[in-house]
Design a protein that fits this description.
The structure holds 2 protein chains of 2 kinds. Chain A contains 7 helices and 10 strands. Chain A is α/β, with parallel strands linked by helices. Chain A folds into 2 domains: 174 residues, Rossmann fold, CATH 3.40.50.300; 65 residues, no CATH class. In chain A, a hairpin with a 2-residue loop joins β4 and β5. In chain A, α2 packs across α3, α2 packs parallel to α4 and α6 packs across α7. The longest helix of chain A is centred in the last third of the chain and has 18 residues. Chain A starts with 10 loop residues before the first strand and ends with a helix. Chain B is mainly alpha-helical. Chain B has a single domain, classed as MetI-like (MetI-like fold, Orthogonal Bundle), CATH 1.10.3720. The longest helix of chain B is centred in the C-terminal third of the chain and has 38 residues. Chain B is elongated and about 75 Å long. Classes of the chains: A alpha/beta, B mainly alpha. Chains A and B meet through α2 of A and α7 and α8 of B.
């Protein structure tokens, strides 16, 4: 059940000695030195209680926040010093501009990164269909349900065709039912598009359901206390959650997090 | 509502025996306005041009200054306190100085309208720029948007609702500025006409001029309102 920290040759993400101390009024140690790899095409969930520094970890990997000295992040064997074009990030709050309609919002990130319209047009048409937003392409964010907004937010990043997808509880603000639906869609898209995904979440069931491997983080200062490989068959569906193996993973992770 | 008010005005002059040089009946004001329409429109046009120019410059300069203050910590420390200090000064008191500086002509009125309208635009724009969502700012960083792209596609649309609000405050103030400018020293405009009518005991003409002032102010405000409706996400 437990995997060791082995160095993978074909790592999509490689994290070595990444730590973070915030010093505003007083010093807060957010992250203890963290090491791990994410393989190409792998779906890894980082699981931890709120405030454990998992979002900070994601931001460091994205290149949005620098690691403390000595830490090193490589994405696709390139040292991550700034945000790179290979990485797409979806945050918990949706990323749509209120004054743009769904189609314009889907185009936004790719336009900003300079994808020519010729290439972008077919991508957007495909995404509108895949994300079931075709009928709403002229709608504005405030006219959409929370689930649709989050789907469109994911779509905006998928339009970048990133090799590596970093997700910070992208469906965290949604009700459980919508969240389950979007997770199934996310898996479908991931399997079609063969991307590397790192997802940050505090939901044990979500982490088990989605990922190939769960990295369990401790309370602050966050460090990885355990890695659990999830050997559940794919494609996964709602039946996956009924399997006894699924329950055993959930119980095991519960224990790991409860100890803290 | 207006009809009731007009009726009360018209009848109360009779009923309470108010002297016509204090309050002429509405009918008299309207006949005077009609017979003096050429003068009224000419003076209104002059004042309107002063207001629009002053307001326009205030809008351009106010937005530009707010952007500079927002973009540079240096401007924030140096220019901003200066502006706040200046705002404390009653701008009416500056009117005589403006006449001395730029003369009796329309320039001093444009300048007064500008001074009155400038500050609300700066404050509105600053507030709007600061209200840009931090989550969206991080998103723009994550999609590697340049400073210019972030400004153009995120800061400006985020700030537009507050700029519109600032403009709505600024427009009536620009009207006040122009009229005050004309009061202090002028040869033309509605403010000048009001003073002249007053001096000649022509209360009917004075009221007609006042009606024109409110008509001009109302129409200009409506214009801002109509342009503002294009920023529809203001209402969200």
């Amino acid at each position: 059940m437990t995997a060791s920290t082995s160095v993978q040759a074909d790592a999509a993400i490689s994290v070595r000695g990444v730590a973070k101390t915030f010093s505003a009024r007083h010093e807060v140690r957010a992250l203890e030195a963290v090491d791990f790899d994410v393989g190409l095409g792998e779906f890894v969930a980082v699981l931890g209680p709120s405030g454990c520094g998992k979002s900070t970890l994601l931001r460091i990997i994205a290149g949005l926040v620098p690691s403390d000295a000595g830490g090193e992040v490589k994405v696709l064997n390139r040292l991550q010093v700034d945000v790179s074009d290979q990485v797409g990030v979806v945050f918990q709050t949706h990323n749509m501009l209120p004054w743009l309609n769904v189609e314009e919002n889907l185009r936004l990130a790719a336009e900003v990164r300079g994808v020519p319209p010729r290439e972008l047009d077919p991508r957007i048409e495909e995404l509108l269909v895949v994300l079931k937003l075709d009928a709403f392409r002229r709608s504005y964010p405030h006219e959409l349900s929370g689930g649709m907004r989050q789907r469109a937010g994911l779509g905006q990043i998928l339009a970048l065709r990133p090799q590596v997808l970093l997700l910070d509880e992208p469906f965290g603000a949604l009700d459980a039912l919508t969240r389950d639906q979007l997770n199934i869609e996310l898996l479908r898209i991931w399997q079609e598009m063969k991307k590397t995904v790192m997802l940050v979440t505090h939901s044990i069931a979500e982490a088990v359901f989605l990922s190939d491997r769960v990295l369990v983080m401790s309370d602050r200062p966050g460090r990885i206390i355990e890695q659990v490989r999830i050997d559940l068959p794919r494609p996964r569906s709602n039946e996956t959650k009924a399997a006894s193996q699924f329950g055993r993973y959930v119980v095991h992770l519960n224990e790991l997090m409860g100890v803290r | 509502m207006f009809a009731v008010l007009a009726l009360v005005w018209e009848k109360s002059v009779d009923i309470f025996h108010i002297k016509p040089y204090l309050l002429p009946p509405l009918s008299k004001v309207l006949t005077t306005a009609w017979s003096s329409r050429a003068v009224l429109f000419r003076e209104s046009w002059i004042t309107t041009l002063e207001i629009v120019q002053g307001f326009g410059w205030a809008l351009v300069a106010g937005v530009a200054l707010a952007v500079a203050i927002q973009a540079s910590a240096f401007a924030q420390r140096t220019v901003y306190p200066l502006i706040v200090a200046f705002q404390g000064l009653p701008k009416i008191a500056l009117a005589p100085l403006m006449v001395v500086w730029v003369g009796y002509g329309s320039a001093s009125k444009v300048l007064m309208a500008f001074l009155f309208a400038f500050f609300p635009v700066v404050i509105g724009t600053l507030g709007g720029l600061a209200s840009t969502s931090p989550a969206l700012l991080e998103h723009f960083r994550a999609i590697r948007a340049s400073r210019w792209t972030t400004f153009r596609r995120l800061h400006v649309p985020s700030a537009l609702p507050a700029i519109i609000d600032g403009a709505k405050t600024a427009m009536p103030l620009a009207v006040i500025g122009a009229i005050v400018g004309e009061f202090v020293g002028s040869e033309a405009g509605l403010g000048h006409l009001i003073l002249e009518a007053n001096a000649n005991g022509r209360t009917d003409l004075l009221f007609a001029a006042l009606l024109m002032v409110s008509a001009v102010a109302g129409l200009l405000y409506l214009a801002v309102e109509l342009v503002g409706r294009r920023v529809w996400w203001r209402a969200l």
